[in-house]
């Protein structure tokens, strides 16, 4: 029996080749200036995530599940905004912490002053929106529940 290679449609192949080309171009441009610093940053970020951040948010998630007890259907309403807020903090940490405010102002001509406040407001909006969705879900579940027989 002869093995057949599945390649997909011509559009899929074109998109795949285009994405690999774009990734190769970005990699060449990224590594052009300080390739050792970029490689060190990637290794450091992987180690930081695997050795520090993963155990921390794994432990927090286990504590959340344990605190929820038998009613675990509402956990996603905490997990999702927490994950999005954490991701935003991770991406914008240099500006939120103010560590690169001078370089940012020099490169863009804009101030980095509002980043901590905006991140906190966005985090509050994420958790507030999640709370509203949870209340709506619980209200709908209460209305759809049949009355208890006495």
Given helix and strand content, the structural type is mainly alpha
Taking the alpha carbons of the first and last residues, their distance comes to: 68 Å
The percent range for helix content is over 70%
Please state the overall shape, judged from the principal axes of the Cα atoms. Answer: extended
Order of helices and strands: HHHHH
Number of strands: 0
Task: Please state the average pLDDT score.
Answer: 88
How would you sum up this structure, described in words?
With 150 residues, this protein is mostly helical. Helices cover 78% and strands 0% of the residues. The protein contains 5 helices and no strands. It has helices spanning 10-32, 35-68, 76-97, 101-108, 115-144. The longest helix is centred in the middle third of the chain and has 34 residues, at 35-68. The radius of gyration is 23 Å and the shape is extended. The protein starts with 9 loop residues before the first helix and ends in a 6-residue tail after the last helix. The model has no long low-confidence stretch (mean pLDDT 88).
């Amino acid at each position: 029996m002869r093995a057949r290679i599945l390649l997909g449609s011509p559009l899929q192949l074109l998109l795949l080749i285009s994405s690999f080309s774009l990734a190769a171009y970005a990699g060449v441009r990224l590594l052009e200036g300080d390739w050792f610093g970029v490689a060190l940053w990637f290794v450091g970020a992987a180690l930081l995530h695997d050795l520090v951040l993963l155990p921390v948010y794994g432990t927090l998630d286990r504590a959340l599940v344990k605190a929820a007890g038998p009613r675990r259907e509402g956990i996603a309403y905490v997990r999702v905004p927490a994950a999005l807020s954490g991701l935003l903090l991770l991406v914008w940490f240099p500006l939120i912490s103010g560590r690169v405010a001078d370089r940012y102002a020099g490169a863009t001509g804009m101030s980095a002053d509002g980043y901590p406040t905006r991140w906190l407001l966005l985090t509050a909006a994420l958790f507030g929106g999640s709370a509203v969705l949870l209340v709506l879900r619980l209200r709908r579940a209460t209305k759809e529940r049949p009355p208890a027989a006495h």
